[in-house]
Amino acid sequence: MPTLAAAFSFAPIRSLHHERARRIRGIVQPVASHMAVTPAPAVAAAEYCLAHHALEGAESAARNGDTATFNWYREHPDGNALALAIATDVGPRVVVAPDLRRLPRSTISETPYYVIGPQSSAAPAGLRELAESAFAAGYAAGFGELLGAHAVVVCFLRRKVLGDTLDSWTITRLPGTVFCDHVGDPVVLARDLVHEAAHNWLNDAFAATSCRISDESCFYSPWKRTSRPAFGFLHACWAFPLTMIYAARVLGETDSDVHRFLAAYLDQQRRRLAQTIDDHARALALVTDTELRHRLAAVYREALTL
Amino acid sequence: MDDRISEFLAAVDAMRGDDQDVRTTAHTSSVSAEGWPIHETADDSQALTAREPHQR
Prior knowledge:
Chain A is of the alpha/beta class. Chain A has helices at 4-8, 11-28, 41-63, 67-75, 125-150, 186-208, 230-250, 256-274, 277-284, 290-304; strands at 85-86, 93-96, 153-159, 166-171, 177-182, 218-221, 226-229. Chain B: Residues 16-56 are annotated as: Disordered.
C-alpha cells in the first residue's frame, strides 16, 4: 500500500456517508428537497456526521415532548454546526467544550456524550486554535483523509498534563465525533484524534461492508490486559498501529517533554503490538470483506516495522 | 402527540430497525509522569462496550 491515504480512501465508506446522510435528512426534514447528487467525499462525511447529531437531538426532543427543540432541528438539519465551525487543514471542524457536568448519559452510550443543538457554542479561542494546530499536525503527517472524514466534531473534555491518563472515546451513534482530553499540545492531541478517527473509520468500514464480527472468538489484548472479543481486538490492532505510525512520523519534529513522551509511547506500543502477531492473523480471518481485510493488514504490518 | 413527532419517531424506529447495537469505543492512555520512559504500571486500556437494549 503506497500511502496511508490509500488505506483510508474506501469506496464503501463514501457510499455509506452519502446514503445514510440522505436518509437521515429525509427523516429529520421530510418536506425539504434533498440532493440526489453525490457530494464530494469530505462534504458527504461532514453531512453524515452532522446528520447524526440532528437525528439524536431531534429524537431526544421528540421523545421528551420538547416541540420547540424538535422544530429547531427540523429547521437546522445540520445542527447549525457550520456556524460553529473553524477552518482547518482537513476542512471545517466543529470544536466544542461543553460543561462536562451537563453532558447527557443514556442507553445509547456507556460514556457521556454531547449532541450539537440550539444551545451549542464554539469552544474558547484557545481550544479552537489548539484543534486547528492539531489537525495541521495530523494532516502534515499524512492523516488528512482520515481526520477529514472521521473527526468532524471535536468535543473537548478535560485539560490534563503530560503523564496523566488521557481519556478519549467515540460512540457509534455519533460517527465522526471525537471526545477527548488534551494536554494543550497540538502534536499530542493529533495522536488522540488519529486514534479516535481510526475507531470511527473502522466502525464505518464494518457497517459499509456489512461485516458482522462474531464475539465468539476472543484474543488477548495487551492494551486491556485481558481477553477481548474479536471486534474490540481488531479495533485496537487498527487504532494503536495508526497512532504508532503518526508518532514515528512526528517524532523528529518534536523536542523536550513532548518528544520524550511520544518516544516512550511508541516504544510502549511496539512491545504491545508484538504480543498480538499470532492472534491478529486469526482475528483478521474473521473479516469477511477482502479489501477491508487487506487494509487492516497493511497498516498493522507497517506499524510492526517501526 | 404532534403528528409530525409521531411520524418522525416511526421513521426513526424503522431506520434503526435491527441496528440497535451501540458500541462505545473508549480508550484511555497514560505514559507515566516519572520522567519517561514509562513504567508498565501505567494504565492503558481500551474498552469496547455495549449494553441493553443494545446488549451484545
